[in-house]
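User:
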Amino acid sequence: MYNSFYQLSKGEQKAVNDLIKKLEIKSSIDEQKVRAVENWTKTEISISDAITNNPALDEIIEYKQTSKSGATRYLLLCSTILTFLLNLC
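Assistant: Predicted structure:
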């Protein structure tokens, strides 16, 4: 879905791949994969009103914070991450 709206840069693709590896999901159950991505997002990413620009996805993952519009982009990225996980694991 994300790739339908935005094209991932090389840095963003690397950040997604690194995040998938970092999550270390060993389960073959789809629900657990979704919960792992959801839990990481809820515990690691914060939305700040002080951020006025629209950070790239690799910056969101690296700095673990984003603007409101960046959060929308990140949520679309989560669908991409889940697609990879559901197809690869």
